[in-house]
Amino acid sequence: TTAPVTKLRLAIQKSGRLHDDSMRLLKECGIDISNGVNKLKSEASNFPLEVFFLRDDDIPQYVEDKVADIGFVGENVVYEKKKKVEVVEKLGFGKCRLSIAVPKGEDYASAASLQGKRIATSYPVLVQDFLNQQGVQAEIHEISGSVEIAPGIGLASAICDLVSSGSTLFMNGLQEVETILQSQAVLITSAGLSEEQQAILNKLMFRIQAVKKAKNTKYVLLNAPNDKLDEIIGLLPGMKSPTVLPLAEKGWSSVHSVLSESQFWDIIEKLKAAGAQGILVVPIEKMIL
Ligand code: ATP
Ligand code: MG
Known about the structure:
There is one protein chain. The protein is α/β, with parallel strands linked by helices and 289 residues long. It folds into three domains: 115 residues, 3-Layer(aba) Sandwich (D-Maltodextrin-Binding Protein, domain 2), CATH 3.40.190.10; 88 residues, D-Maltodextrin-Binding Protein, domain 2; 67 residues, Alpha-Beta Plaits (2-Layer Sandwich). The protein has eight helices and 15 strands. The longest helix is centred in the C-terminal third of the chain and has 21 residues. The chain is flat and about 75 Å long. The two termini are 41 Å apart. The protein binds adenosine-5'-triphosphate and magnesium ion (MG). The site of magnesium ion has 3 residues, from loops.
């Protein structure tokens, strides 16, 4: 008989806002998972990974209990549940904020305005932490969903809920007054993985980081007159120095480089001003540094 193959067990959300992005990330990492409807778990065909599909609220507990070795879950859930898990990587999706909102038009100067009020939320632990930090006493009323309707039906005079665009708050006549947490999906793990499991996790993290870096980076190709090359090269940060190739047309070169999304527009404008032409910007799929 052969020894059982070590696998890493990953918990992701079964359905909801994090599900599709979690599956997409695995796919971009080259990991194939058949995702049958109503399946509880699934095995990757080309990577030592088993995926469990769970309610997002349960993921930190499963990881703490070592039923799963790692999980993809929102920071909001991780910090609310206060389980013994470690955040090892931000995943760049599921971005939202946990905010306090009050009815529109209501005066709100600072957290002190919440003194003595009743706040409806699904995040009692994080709200209490915030109130303690601010030295404010308020009553927390825990509800599991539809928090935004609480002020309208007289259940509470403020709420604390997840916000991304703010349109839900707006539609319910509420104004956002305080952000208590910025959140995104993260990779969590329990302490004490075996050496083999840690090796698989390292392999997975290497791939996740390559995908994340690529998302924030563009490949730029442009044509430059040779007498402007020095100036144009000076504008490009690149990974090392840019690639410079002669064009068929005399006196011109093609310059290739890599730009981060955040510096992108700024640099493109300067490149144009310096005489660059035919600028092409293409996405990068993976980036290994
Ligand atoms: P489950 O059935 O798994 O318990 P859920 O209804 O609790 O699902 P979702 O609404 O699918 O959870 O949200 C999952 C996570 O997506 C949130 O915990 C949060 O980290 C993230 N998220 C991103 N943007 C938002 C948003 N605008 N509102 C709510 N959650 C958001
Ligand atoms: Mg949930």
